[in-house]
Task: structure prediction
Amino acid sequence: MIYDNVACRKGKGTFFGIKRLENFLRDYFKKNKTNQGYFLKCDVKKYFQSIDHNILAQYLRKSGLDNEDMWFIDKLLESRYSENGIGLPIGNQTSQWFGLFYLNVVDRLIKEKLRVKYYVRYMDDMILIHHDKEYLKLCRQEIEKCVSEKLNLKLNSKTQIGQLKNGIDFLGFRNILMKNGKILRLLRGQAKSKLKKKIKLLKKLKNNNLIDNDYINVRLNAFNAHLCHSNSLKLYSILKSKYGFN
Result:
């Protein structure tokens, strides 16, 4: 699998994906001296629910797995997954691995045929960056064709082409390339709402003596660790203060 397939792999994950996108934006600015540029964000419609077992097994065999490996995987798919041969259960470790691998043919298309330098994928969330909007339109057509013909999938309505200066939504943050080349990373609106609800719930559970201070500290430290890589720490401090966590 390609280096920039970043979900659920040793040494990679959410923060790795966020930093990888940031590095791409910095390199883009360094080479083009501007924040004028475009991104293509692709998202697969009901990804895990739509993975075809036969197609998955076909690509696994081509990857070099031996007959014993494939016997085990075939039995796993037959016994634990959907009866019609479509779909994987979300959350299973094997589902995560299969999800990483299934779109490998798309990764190869983007990197080896379309030659897009700035590309990162977190499971079915794909980001391509390029200076030419028309070329990204072509990339979208090629990707749609590939996922349809080779993987029996469809891109969903979240798939779009946007401007770098307006920000890229990726892994819970909006990543904005500024005129001076700096990267502004802010919580997305939906993520802000979720954070507020979580802190409000902690307050409610505390007031009803359902959780102790140790648990509260663990949760708050987790929120802080996530937000410390963004420009949204001030918002977090305001929310903590509002609900009595100082």
